[in-house]
Amino acid sequence: MTTVLVVLVVVAVLVVAMLGYVAWRDRGRRMAGDDPARVRDAEVRRHRYEAERHGSQGDLWQRGHQDSSP
């Protein structure tokens, strides 16, 4: 029984250590890459792409709908 508890404690400590390391590593990356102008530019490009894609899909649907009507 003691062996099982020791193994579980060791596994728990390893999991916590790995999560701590990953959180620490990601925090360092996030701070270096958060340029507000770049983030805003990326969001603008993403919204523009979505709007263009949505518009082109609407055009295709309307053309197909008009062609099928007598």
Our Rg estimate from Cα atoms comes to 26 Å
Structural class: mainly alpha
Principal-axes shape call: elongated
Give the H and E element order. HH
Average pLDDT number: 81
Main sheet: strands, sense, barrel: none
Fraction of helical residues = over 70%
Number of alpha- plus pi-helical segments:
2
User: β content, as a range?
Assistant: under 5%
Low-confidence segments? none
Distance between the termini: 80 Å
Number of structurally distinct domains: 2
Number of strands: 0
Protein name: Secreted protein
Keywords: Membrane, Transmembrane, Transmembrane helix
Organism: Micromonospora coerulea
Characterise this structure.
With about 70 residues, the protein is an all-alpha fold. It folds into 2 domains: about 1-35; about 35-70. It has helices spanning about 1-35, 35-70. The radius of gyration is 26 Å and the shape is elongated. The model has no long low-confidence stretch (mean pLDDT about 80). Keywords: Membrane, Transmembrane, Transmembrane helix. This is Secreted protein. It comes from Micromonospora coerulea.
